[in-house]
Design a protein that fits this description.
With 336 residues, the protein is mainly alpha-helical. The protein has eleven helices and two strands; from the N terminus they run H-H-E-E-H-H-H-H-H-H-H-H-H.
Length: 336
């Protein structure tokens, strides 16, 4: 669902940057500073896993389309909405700058569409289901409902932002009519995958999940380090190997554009879009998730592994910066 710059007017893109920046600032303020020592590595590893999982486009049978996970609901169920939102920003930023996946001018909109709903609306759903304890059935139900609903909201936002921009000839009603059903199917698959991962985490280390009751470490089947090690290996295998088997069909947004215009991409003609495109061309060292100038499987594997490692490092670095800033502000704050 990564939007390209061609769908957005600069004014709408600027508004979405402002909205996403405000949500990021609020998330930094609300982040649980007391748990950052544990939270930061979890954010990094889970962010790398979500990046890797997003590389796998799965075919939607009978449509000629494909979909991929967004990951906001999954991250929220593990680290809570604020840490999840910041982690998703790290994932989407690396995808945009390093891989040219989604427009740079459209980054604020992509953060809102793919991260805000999954993290914050997803948090409301997760909290409602887990209010009286976490069980396998509740995890499955919350994952399915959360992923379906938040992807529907994200797809709806794409159509609204395109309509508000007014720079394409896409008819709103027709665009909406193709976007919502295909993302319903994608949401169901994402919900199933999310549920499977969360059930594993709940069985391996119940206290790792957000809203879980505190538990004695001796009662946890696996240590935190062990669980993160498993997730790191899964991220590496997914990015370096499983991504090679991703569907070649266009994703839900590209498929919707193709149905209405005959092409999976629209050409950006504005000077502002061209400016952001030039910047992105300089930063995209691994365009289309492959080594520059390469179309080999080995290049794709290397790009996936590099991307997962960069996301992990970027998210951990972001967490440490936030932690240092919080401690510095705390040390200068007046004592009462």
């Amino acid at each position: 669902m990564h939007m390209a710059d061609a769908l957005l007017a600069p004014g709408v893109a600027g508004i979405m940057y402002a909205c996403s920046t405000a949500a990021a600032g609020h998330s930094i303020q609300k982040l649980d500073k007391d748990k950052e020592d544990q939270l930061v590595p979890v954010m990094g590893v889970m962010g790398a896993f979500v990046f890797a999982a997003q590389m796998i486009n799965f075919t939607i049978p009978g449509t000629g389309s494909s979909g991929h996970l967004c990951g906001g609901m999954l991250l929220t169920a593990v680290v809570g909405p604020y840490a999840a939102f910041l982690t998703m920003i790290g994932v989407l930023l690396i995808q945009c700058l390093l891989f040219a996946d989604g427009g740079l001018m459209a980054l604020g909109a992509n953060v809102w569409n793919m991260a805000f709903y999954g993290c914050f609306v997803g948090a409301l759903i997760w909290r409602a289901f887990m209010r009286k304890g976490i069980t396998r059935k509740k995890i499955i139900a919350a994952s399915l409902l959360g992923c379906v609903l938040t992807l529907q909201l994200g797809a709806f936002s794409v159509t609204l932002e395109t309509l508000a921009s007014g720079i394409t000839e896409l008819p709103f009603t027709a665009f909406l009519a193709v976007m919502q059903p295909i993302h319903l199917a994608i949401g169901l698959v994402e919900g199933a995958v999310t549920a499977a991962v969360l059930v594993f985490l709940q069985e391996a280390r119940p206290s790792l999940l957000w809203q879980a009751e505190s538990a004695d470490s001796q009662k946890q089947p696996m240590t935190l380090r062990g669980v993160l090690g498993v997730m790191a290996v899964l991220a590496a295998v997914t990015a370096g190997l499983l991504s090679l088997f991703a569907s070649a069909f266009p994703d839900g947004l590209e498929w919707s554009l193709q149905r209405l215009t005959g092409s999976t991409e629209l050409e950006a003609t504005g000077s502002v879009q061209a400016f952001f495109a030039r910047i992105q061309s300089l930063t995209a060292l691994l365009p289309d998730y492959n080594l520059a100038g390469s179309e080999s499987a080995a290049g794709g594997s290397a790009a996936g592994l590099i991307g997962a490692a960069v996301v992990l490092a970027a998210v951990v670095l972001l967490g440490k910066i936030i932690k240092k800033a919080a401690h510095r502000n705390g040390s200068t704050a007046p004592r009462h």
